[in-house]
UniProtKB/TrEMBL annotation:
The keyword Iron-sulfur does not apply. Residues 7-131 form the VOC domain. The keyword Metal-binding applies. PANTHER family: FOSFOMYCIN RESISTANCE PROTEIN FOSX (PTHR36113:SF6), LYASE, PUTATIVE-RELATED-RELATED (PTHR36113). This is VOC family protein. Pfam families: Glyoxalase (PF00903).
Length: 150
């Protein structure tokens, strides 16, 4: 049997405050709201770019992201180059979003790929990275990928 060609379609995230999360994801990632239901008991939003759905937000959670539970580890977005990562870093700093590491870092010792690591308002771990150009800083973790244990 031949397996079909697969491509990630979109990622759905549970959030505690839909309005706050929509604002965050729009400011940081430049997403458009493709659809939403902002009233009632079933609040959600569809976010993307150029009409393509990338992230769905579902307001149905209490508390914060539990890194010690099975499930989503982190969500990473690739950008074309390290300059785009640095622009994202500047946006995050302007918004007062704490970075996990001090700025742009490589994915590991000797790796050229890398980016910035941070969390959304609910503590969901996020990454914006480029395939090359991050090797100007030392890797912040030894013996494991940078995105593995933050």
């Amino acid at each position: 049997m031949n397996a079909p060609v697969l491509k990630t379609g979109h990622v759905g995230l549970n959030v505690t405050d839909l309005t706050r999360s929509i604002a965050f994801y729009r400011q940081v990632f430049g997403f458009d709201v493709l659809g939403e239901q902002a009233e009632g008991d079933r609040r959600f939003a569809f976010l993307g770019r150029d009409g393509g759905l990338m992230v769905t937000l579902w307001q149905q959670s209490d508390g914060g992201f539990a890194a010690d539970r099975p499930g989503l580890h982190h969500l990473a977005f690739q950008v074309p180059d390290i300059e785009a990562v640095r622009r994202a870093e500047a946006t995050l700093r302007d918004l007062g979003v704490p970075l996990v590491y001090d700025g742009v870092v490589p994915h590991g010792e000797g790796a050229s790929s890398g980016g910035v690591f941070f969390t959304d308002p609910d503590g969901i771990r996020l990454e914006i990275y480029a395939p090359t150009g991050a090797d100007t800083a030392p890797a912040p973790t030894q013996g494991a990928p940078t995105c593995g244990f933050f």
